[in-house]
Specification:
This protein is mostly beta strands and 190 residues long. The chain contains two helices and 13 strands. The protein is 5% helix and 38% strand.
Amino acid sequence: MAFFNVLKGDYPGLRQIDKTLDVGSAETGIVRGSALYIDGSGSVPVFRLAGDTQATDPTATIYFSLMAQTDLVAGMAGTAGQGAAAGVTDPVLGTVSGVAKVTGLSCGMPLEFETDQYADTDYDVMALLTVGASGKLTPHSTGDNVVAQVTKAPATRWANNAEAVAGYRTGANVTVLTARTVWVPTLTVS
């Protein structure tokens, strides 16, 4: 399951720092709570799944996805199943396949959240976090960007939208890490 829940902060609200962008055309694996970064190398900026490279890139501000790229709403907001997805040639972009459009909350926005998108390891309260493989939070190492700080070690909680039986949203227990957002690019700890 992919779980992300804001406990404290300006979400939802007009003061939230968010960004809504298309998902990169070859991107896969973005789920609710995934760490994303903006890839501005093309003619149009897109969201991509953050990984080890973005952990040390001070220009890669991290965003936490509010929905999976396979979510029907993300598909409808983008072009999945519409127009260009059917092979229509766009006068600007050329022939493109359908892409989803997702919204992410910036790690530069003060908030406390809980998520199940973290690497399986031990976490101490106050530990610093960065991004790792598959857009998951992982312990910070010297020289990495800091994107969050643990406020509560992983714990089990009930989630109404967890799938207990495939295809049904009947609720189930999930193990979540609670953290607060922090943005400190390439922090070196002595």
